[in-house]
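Let's practice the habit of predicting before peeking. Look at the sequence and jot down your guess about where helices and strands might fall. Then scroll down.
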Amino acid sequence: MPVTVLLVDDEPLVRAGLRAVLEAQPGIEVVGEAADGAAVIPLVRQLRPDVVAMDVRMPLMDGIEATQAVLRTVDDPPKILVVTTFEDDEYVYEALRAGADGFLLKRARPAEIVHAVRLVAEGESLLFPASVRRLAARYGDGDRPARAVLDRARLTEREAEVLRLMARGLSNAEIAARLVVGTETVKSHVSAVLAKLGARDRTQAVIAAYESGFVEPR
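Done guessing? Here is the structure:
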């Protein structure tokens, strides 16, 4: 089955460019477009895309509000990839905190765009870990609820080690090689970390780790 994508951006040229890049690749299908975040929920319910590639800044409903709305109201929501002009934009970090799974620069090369969509769809690795770390260092505020979540999670020593490696952007296979264990064992640890933190994916777990001070972003 192809990875299905919904494009959301108020600039028609951006949507056209992303569509051209993605549809040129095998295994990716653009199933719809929207010009504002306000149109996302009905389209997600109708089209059931795997990934929503969404501009972080739009006139009526921006990518942060749209991300929150999708995660709050849609059962089995899609992965959300926010699209931005500047990687150090506070809006990007707020979108990640709101539940977005990653971000993509509008100036990215075609191969990077395709890689981002596929990686977010798979959900096994953190997209652009160094950039997420820089955003956390710049805009993170030592969130008290995040600290409480980490305290309540009571991660085992091995789970804590896995979370730290996730924050560095390592894939399950890379974590397995580092810890000298099987990939299935790592998958079990990752699943346990996500469940204990109440995180829907690796990005949210890593954001919680940074926000709580469990992992130092600098």
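How did you do? The chain has a mean pLDDT of 91.
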